[in-house]
């Protein structure tokens, strides 16, 4: 990845490719041409045939030097705004056309801030985790530990970036509540204590389960403080 970044940097310094300009701290403009994380690679390019050809050469050089083969069948060209050369790009790279919103590092990219569909993957992960543990007997204490250490932590990745819609928050709380009291499928059990009381701190008579709305607002505020 360092070799690929060096190839891209050389092409960028020579003025052959241009990324997207974003405003950083102190109103300093930064140009972003690519994002790399593990095996996920995001290349940013203007709608220009010459730049597309340069990107193609960069990819070919990287493959020759590294001995690796990029799977273009799993890659996508995602148009942003008004673009004219989408078909030209797909034929040049041999990949398919994607669209926004899409997913990058599990996070939704290009989705509206209040879009409930952003949280569908989280809800599915909640249900998959519970499906495994519902097959085993867990005491109330075991369920409480599972809620605190596992289910609540699944949300941490999303919470500093997105404000949870009320509808989604209610659904996720219902999943947590049903698991704590031992609901299995169509078999419902009596919930002995209100969920608002369950979420209170232990010194106030609760069980210390994180309240989703409060945690979400705290992480959003922390993220904003870091960015500022």
- Residue runs with pLDDT of under 50 for 5 or more positions: none
General shape: elongated
Total count of strands: 8
Q: Please estimate the helix content.
A: 40-55%
Measured distance between first and last alpha carbons: 30 Å
- What proportion of the residues form beta strands (DSSP E)? 5-15%
Going by helix content, strand content and strand pairing, the class is alpha+beta
Helices, by number, come to: 8
Whole-number tally of structural domains: 2
Sum up the structure in keywords.
two-stranded antiparallel sheet; 2 domains; alpha+beta; 44% helix; 228 residues; elongated; 8 helices
Can you describe this structure?
The chain is an alpha+beta fold and 228 residues long. The protein has two domains: 2-99, no CATH class; 116-227, no CATH class. The protein has helices at residues 2-13, 49-66, 86-93, 120-133, 140-151, 166-181, 195-198, 212-227, and strands at 20-23, 29-32, 34-37, 40-43, 76-77, 96-97, 102-104, 107-109. The strands form four sheets. The protein has a two-stranded antiparallel ribbon with strand order 1-2. The longest helix has 18 residues, at 49-66. It starts with a helix and ends with a helix. The relative contact order is 0.07. The model has no long low-confidence stretch (mean pLDDT 81).
């Amino acid at each position: 990845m360092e070799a690929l970044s060096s190839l891209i940097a050389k092409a960028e310094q020579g003025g052959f490719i241009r990324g997207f300009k974003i405003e950083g701290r102190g109103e300093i403009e930064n140009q972003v041409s690519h994002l790399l994380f593990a095996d996920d690679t995001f290349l940013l390019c203007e709608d220009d045939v010459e730049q597309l050809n340069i990107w193609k050469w960069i990819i070919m050089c990287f493959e020759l030097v590294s001995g690796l083969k990029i799977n273009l069948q799993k890659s996508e060209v995602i148009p942003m705004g008004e673009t004219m050369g989408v078909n030209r790009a797909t034929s040049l790279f041999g990949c398919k056309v994607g669209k926004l919103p899409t997913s990058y590092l599990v996070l939704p990219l290009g989705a509206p801030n209040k879009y409930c569909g952003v949280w569908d993957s989280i809800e599915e992960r909640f249900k998959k985790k519970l499906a495994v543990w519902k097959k085993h007997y867990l005491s109330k204490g075991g369920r409480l530990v599972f809620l605190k250490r596992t289910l609540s932590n699944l949300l941490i990745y999303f919470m500093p970036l997105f404000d949870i819609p009320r509808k989604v928050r209610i659904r996720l709380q219902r999943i947590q509540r049903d698991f704590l009291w031992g609901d299995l499928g169509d078999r419902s059990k009596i919930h002995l204590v209100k969920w608002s009381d369950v979420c209170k701190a232990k010194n106030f008579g609760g069980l210390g389960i994180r309240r989703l709305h409060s945690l979400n607002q705290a992480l959003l505020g922390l993220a904003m403080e870091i960015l500022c």
